[in-house]
Amino acid sequence: MTIAQHKVVTIHYKVSDSDSDELIDSSENGEPMTYLHGARNIIPGLEQALEGKSVGDKLEVMIAPADAYGERSEDRVQQVPIEAFEGMEKVEPGMAVTAQTDQGEINLVIAEVQGETVTVDANHPLAGKSLTFNVTVEEVRDASDEEKAHGHVHGPGGHEHG
C-alpha cells in the first residue's frame, strides 16, 4: 500500500536545521508520529515528499521555508505595552504566550522586554528555516470514514474523542 490521500501513515523521523545540522526533533527512542495524509496535518513539503512511498521506505529530504513553516516576517513582530501581560507573574524573553485577537488565538514568543515595552514575535519558531527530514515509513493503512470526516487520526497515535 502506498501513501496517498486518506491514508493513515506512521513514520519515525528526525528533523534538523539544514544550515546548522542542529537536531530540532526526533521520534527515535519514542513513539512514531501518525497522521492522516492529505489533511494538512504535517508541513506541505514533507507530505509531498511522502506521497507514493510504502512501508519500509527511507528518505532524506530538505524542505525550503515556503513548504515548511513559511518565511520569517518582520510584520509579525510587534511592540506592546507591558500592561498587556497583566496578571502574569513574570514576563521574560523566550516565554511562549497565547494572545486573544479578533481573528482568534495566536501563539507568541516574548522576544525582548525593555522597561514598559514588550516585543512579541508571532512567527513560528521554525519560520525562515530550511529543514532536513530523515524519515522511515513504518505503517500505511486506509483511514476510517470517521477519520476522513474529522480530518485526523483516531485511536493509538491519534486523537481520542471523549
Strand and helix map with partners:
Elements: E1 7-17, E2 23-26, E3 33-36, H1 44-50, E4 58-63, E5 77-81, E6 96-101, E7 104-114, E8 117-121, E9 131-142, H2 145-150
How would you sum up this structure, described in words?
The chain is mostly beta strands. It has two domains: 7-69 and 126-150, Chitinase A, domain 3 (Roll), CATH 3.10.50; 74-121, Beta Barrel (Thrombin, subunit H). It has two helices and nine strands, in the order βββαββββββα. The protein has helices at residues 44-50, 145-150; strands at 7-17, 23-26, 33-36, 58-63, 77-81, 96-101, 104-114, 117-121, 131-142. The strands form two sheets. Strands 1, 2, 3, 4 and 9 form a five-stranded antiparallel sheet that branches. Strand 6 and strand 7 form a beta hairpin. The longest helix is centred in the N-terminal third of the chain and has 7 residues, at 44-50. It is elongated and about 60 Å long. It starts with 6 loop residues before the first strand and ends in a 12-residue tail after the last helix. 17% of the residues are buried. The model has no long low-confidence stretch (mean pLDDT 92).
Summarize the structure.
By secondary structure, the chain is mainly beta. It is built from two helices and nine strands. The protein folds into two domains: 7-69 and 126-150, Chitinase A, domain 3 (Roll), CATH 3.10.50; 74-121, Thrombin, subunit H (Beta Barrel).
